Amino acid sequence: MDPCCGTGSFLEQIVMHDTRDKKYNLCGFEILPAPYMLANYRMAILRNKYGVKKHKTNIVLANTLSNYTFGETVDTSTIQGEELQKAQTLSSLPLKLIIGNPPSSDSSKTNEGPEFSIISDLMTDFRPPEETRHARQNIQKQINNPHMQFLRWACEKLLKSTQHSVLSFIVPSSFLEAESYRYARKYLCDNFSAIWIVAVDADARTGIRSDSLFNTLQGRAVIIAVRRHNEIKTTDKYMYLECSSLGKSEKLDFLQQPIDNIMPLFAEQAINCETFSFCPSKPFDEEFYDLFWPVSGEINQKAIFINHCSGIKLAPTTLFTHVKVPFLKRRTRDIAQNGVQSANEWFAGQQKMPTEDKIKHFQHALNEVGDVSRLETLMSEKIRKYSFRPFLTSNVILWEDVLRKYAKVGGGGTRLRPEIIQAYNNENTVGFAMAHAPKDLDSSLKQFVSFCWNHPDNDMCTRGNSHIYLNQYSEKTAEGIVMQNNIDANLRQHISTMLGISELDVANKIVFYTYAILCSQKYLDAFEGALFTVHRSDKRARVPIVDNAETFNLLSEIGHSVACLEQHDYIPENVLGLNADSLWSTVSSTSFRLRSYELNEETEQIVLTDGSVTLKIHCPVDIQRLKISGYNVIKNVWLKFNSYAYTHCEFHKDDLSGLLNLMNKLMMHISFVGQIDEIVQDILDKKIKLFN
Q: Model confidence over 488-528: pLDDT tens digits?
């Protein structure tokens, strides 16, 4: 049976590969009339081609997930009722194989309501234990995705089958290890005798260049679960085959080999009883890693930081930010006066334009302020420095009253994060942004933290939320908002005693120390198996806390040096030996519009141009390739947001100086990380005692 058969592709292939003409029922359910008719037509073509075979074919027009396929009484007086009755009868037979490619949609709201109460109740088996659930738990969002409902439906039917049976589904590649699907994977392990996985397409949303068989960015895998009737129905291992790195034609050739050629290529993997992941991870020293401190944890779990929160989410970000304050003010005045017309001119060429609805609301709010002088006063009060992307400080109109309203305008999306705003309104706050799911950022593990000296944006990492870890956190008390130390009490007391400094100073030290460790490439390499994961709320990155004052201080000081590179006014050493005056002398104009830019690794150059004026800058490959939190820092951050499409202002020699400063900062960053790595190697070699 294919419970979501579409135009019958899988059913057709089953018939075409049936060389022994066996006797069986072949069933397909489809909810949409057009694919249903095409599937029937396809079966008719096969009958004409191969003649009458022993198997029986039934393609039924029905919603597989409705209560009727579970036995609810059907009104057979209508054509629809007759089809539903067929579906009920066929799905009640002892099933041997359920195969399919269920629909997957993050935004789907179908299959809800009284007609789907049975499948809705069954989905509880895929949820976390009741005592660990809470209302805003993001990991439950995917449970009612259609592909999950079809999977649970198939499991239910096969569990009631009185013969050996097989489940074979195409699923999003995220199903193999994402936390959202942990309990679905556990359910399969608890109810099936053997599990086979074929990773077909990588998730291209991470930036991986995936030559996909399936027309989706999500990535796809095949899961085959075998259930042996009247035998042990649990498994503690799975068989895994990886072919996602192959090109499309290579995948087709590979998957069409004789089965005897492919079977030896599967590798047996043990099931992790915590994650139930169906994707192998790189081995690491788990016993040693368990001695480290989690950066954050669940309630009552020991962790370095007590609280954390995702960054400020502006929707649309482009309406409130600009890398240059004068142009942010000018654009705001233009929108106040001319609304959508001016906004369209300013945002022309950008990847994502603000919607008319949000532009009009912004214009209305600006005009309510009063005359031009009052608007100027408001902008001076509300514009703040903004940690926008790794190594890029922008400027933001942090207008809280308007941003609160934006949470309900044009689909919402805005998240003000008052606790973060309150924290950064205090000049003593320091912290860093961390991606909780490094595997969602890139095809390999790279630095997934960046420092935030100013109010931080939610997109400090390319995918998912950037989570902000601070030295202090705001707390409401009877006396008002009070800043509280955000470091675990036992940890800060121990470090305070060890270093002989106050617990307030210790909080800063621990922020910079933790940041240094998380920047270390040696650390990332050693614990890739633990760190290179998708989002898991109970398994944050762990950091070794050294029980040695000299080593702790040294790492904290280097961490501070690395963090300072991300200050907007930090002037680095000219380690590259490049001179803005000399480079600008090659430009035949006082300024130009930066419309295009290219990073050339072969010539080690950055090429900037407006189509006529061209500026070439020497740029080492190491910094061309440098990625932080999923971003190529030069290309996807600095050059993008300083290009004409995003600034609508000319590129001058001062801007070139800013680019050269960034390049020098990145070279210094690489050097500092090298220094951290030398110390981290001693930690990895267990030469330094840890505090745990």
A: 999 999 999 999 999 999 999 999 999 999 999 999 999 99
Domain span including residue 552: 283-312+417-692
For the chain, percent of residues with pLDDT exceeding 90: 74
The helix (H) or strand (E) run that includes residue 392 is strand 392-397
- Both tokens assigned to 311: 């960054």
- CA dist., res. 506 & res. 504, Å (int): 5
Encoded tokens for 80: 């629809």
User: Which tokens in the block code for residue 180?
Assistant: 């959202």
Q: CA distances (Å), 207 to each of 11, 444, 461, in order?
A: 34, 10, 13
pLDDT at res. 140: 64
Plot region of 464 (φ>0 → left; ψ -120 to 50 → alpha; else → beta): left
Residue 451 lies in a domain: yes
Q: What are φ and ψ of residue 121, in 5° steps?
A: -65, -40
Place of tokens 């081995």: 283
179 found inside a domain: no
Distance from C-alpha of 1 to C-alpha of 4, rounded to nearest angstrom: 9
Rounded to whole angstroms, the Cα distance separating 468 from 515 reads 12
pLDDT tens digit string along 244-273?
A: 888 889 999 999 999 999 999 999 999 988
Quote the pTM value.
0.81
Q: Is the pLDDT of residue 136 over 50?
A: no
Q: Per the domain annotation, does 231 fall within a domain?
A: no
CA torsion sign for 98, 104, 110, 112 is positive
Q: Is residue 270 part of a domain?
A: no
* Token pair of 364 as six digits: 């209305």
Contacts 24+ apart (CB under 8 A), 246-249: 246/211, 247/211, 248/211, 248/212, 248/213
* Total number of domains in the chain: 1
